[in-house]
Amino acid sequence: MSDPVDVDDDLAQRRRAARELGAALRELTDAAVSTEVDAATLTDLAEQVRALVPPLTAASRVRGEPATVDGGQRARRMYNPASGPGNPIAPPMKVEIVDGTAIGRCTLGLAYEGPPSYGHGGISALLLDQILGHAHSTRGKHGMTVKLALRYRRPVPLQTPLRIVGRVERVDGRWTESVATISTEDDPDTVLVEARGVFAVPSAEQAKRLFGELERLVR
Ligand SMILES: CCCCCCCCCCCCCC(=O)SCCNC(=O)CCNC(=O)[C@H](O)C(C)(C)COP(=O)(O)OP(=O)(O)OC[C@H]1O[C@@H](n2cnc3c(N)ncnc32)[C@H](O)[C@@H]1OP(=O)(O)O
């Protein structure tokens, strides 16, 4: 995915690098949860992986500090746990807005396994919460989840391209009520999991209390 043209070269380069590291760590995670190598190899690898931590923490941020790689004007949440390409925890789900509907795509590997060969229910909730958030954001401002109700109709298959779709049903001031579904790309009409969510844009006072200086990033 390309970055906006007005993102400066240094930021674009850092985003590319963060995306690359995220992808490499995802590969590593996938290998780590599917490996069947012996204990000695695992122990040796654990040591090698730990050696990667100090170079990363040589410069790092703490809670309350935005990631510089997220950028200023055209902000991009690079480390979002559902859609951030730089976050190895994220599948990552790629999201686009088509005619006011949020459409997400991703494939879940073995790292997201719940019942054997199917996705963990909490991961479905993560993807649905995220897509509902994007649907809410189509109405102007980012919001926070106030309520999230799920119905798990069928298990979500791993290693299968998924389609996650969310749209706003009702708007009431700073509140929205939206619906979302997960299905497979091959069979988009069969709903595997469905969700209904209420999102709210925090009031100015709430945003200041919750986010302080970071308020501008979430409103
Ligand atoms: C930088 C680039 C970013 C790009 C990313 C974009 C996408 C991001 C995607 C991110 C996705 C991930 C997102 C995340 O992970 S957000 C993380 C998870 N969510 C939270 O942590 C939110 C925690 N909640 C709060 O802090 C407060 O509730 C807030 C501040 C949000 C509102 O606090 P406030 O004090 O204002 O309200 P209330 O809490 O008293 O609750 C009010 C009660 O009233 C009902 N209610 C009232 N009016 C309406 C209405 N019109 N229509 C429908 N319902 C309405 C309401 O349901 C509730 O009902 P009940 O309690 O009686 O049952």
UniProtKB/TrEMBL annotation:
- Which compartments is it annotated to reside in? Cell projection, Ruffle membrane; Cytoplasm; Membrane
The reply to whether Hydrolase figures as a keyword in the UniProt entry is yes
Q: What class of enzyme is it?
A: hydrolase
Biological-process GO terms, alphabetical: fatty acid metabolic process
- Enzyme Commission number: 3.1.2.2
* Residues annotated as domain Thioesterase: 120-187
Q: Name one GO molecular function term.
A: hydrolase activity
Substrates-to-products reaction catalysed: (5Z,8Z,11Z,14Z)-eicosatetraenoyl-CoA + H2O = (5Z,8Z,11Z,14Z)-eicosatetraenoate + CoA + H(+); hexadecanoyl-CoA + H2O = hexadecanoate + CoA + H(+); dodecanoyl-CoA + H2O = dodecanoate + CoA + H(+); decanoyl-CoA + H2O = decanoate + CoA + H(+)
CDD domains linked: PaaI_thioesterase
Q: What GO terms fall under cellular component here?
A: cytoplasm; membrane
> Where does the UniProt entry say this protein principally localizes?
membrane
Keyword line? Apoptosis, Cell membrane, Cell projection, Cytoplasm, Fatty acid metabolism, Hydrolase, Lipid metabolism, Membrane, Transit peptide
Q: How does it sit in the membrane?
A: Peripheral membrane protein
Highest taxon above the source species: Bacteria
| InterPro entries the UniProt entry points to | HotDog_dom_sf, THEM4/THEM5_acyl-CoA_thioest, Thioestr_dom
Per the record, the similarity remark reads: Belongs to the THEM4/THEM5 thioesterase family.
Return the protein name.
Acyl-coenzyme A thioesterase THEM4
